[in-house]
Structures are given as C-alpha cells and as structure tokens.
Amino acid sequence: MEKIRCGWCGKDELYMDYHDNEWGKPVYDDETLFEFLVLESFQAGLSWITILRKRENFRKAFDNFNYKIIAEYNDAKVEELMADTGIVRNRLKVLATINNAKRFIEVQKEFASFSKYIWGFVDNQPIINQPSTLKDVPATTETSDALAKDLKKRGFKFLGSTVIYAHMQATGMVNDHILDCHAR
Description:
By secondary structure, the chain is mainly alpha-helical. 53% of the residues lie in helices and 2% in strands.
C-alpha cells in the first residue's frame, strides 16, 4: 500500500525522501538551521524542488554551509560562485548569504546559539497545526511576520515572512503535515 503524503511532494523520489525524512522534523543545531536559511533564501521566487536538486552543489559551493567561512568570503569568491552553474547564480542572493552569515554569528553571540534565538519565537515548542488539505496551510503567520521583521532589524537579507515560514516548516518549528500524512 502506498504511503499517504502531503500533496506538494508529488511522486518525485528526491521530494518524497525530503518530505519523509526532513520536512517538519525539529532541528536545533545551528549548522542545519543556517543551511536551511541559505537554501530557503535561494528558493525565493523558484520552486523548492529546483533548490533540492541543487542542494549538493550548494553544499560544495558554500563550503558545506559553514557560516564562519562564508562570513569571510571576498569578491573573488563571489565571482567564483557567480560562475558556478550548479547553483542558482543570483548575485543579490549570494551577497545576502555572506551578509546573513555575519548576522548569524552576531545572533549566536547575543543568544549563545541561533537555535535559542529562533526557537524562542515558538516558545521552544513546535507548533502543531491541523491542516486537512494543502489549502489549509498558510504561506505566512503572525509568528513568521514577527521573526522576519526581527531578522530584518538585525540586518538579515532575503528572508521575508514567506521564506521564514517555509524555514519554520522545513526545520520543524511548525508541523504542517496534513492530517492523514504518514509523516505527521
């Protein structure tokens, strides 16, 4: 018998694996939280499957998403990234990633970890929603609005409320698996 999944992942093997094993599972380590910030910011205006298919290329291009290394990128590295056909070559998003790595480190210094900071917006507990269908899943919430606003105030770029809500879903801060989904 075929597993029931959230309809957005369709029948693509990569998408189904991501859905079953990552999406909606709580993430508390800063390294993975940063990886998803990068991937979600690059996803803005594109489909998630596009980013998912390029994920390993992003990992190689961006030094395994090591924010300490990324924060030190120079103009030569930016040009190298702009020439990399394996990733999404958007200069503003590349520059935002470097900027966001620097801001990420600042947040870590202030809160002891980025995880403590970001999970504080949901009182350190995943929000468990009860969507019957994909239509019941919002694109933004008051929480994602507040988090995006605070990140912007702290100097983060390319992380609006829709991107942040997607990040919250991806990292399990929000569980939006539909009610009959096996991964719920």
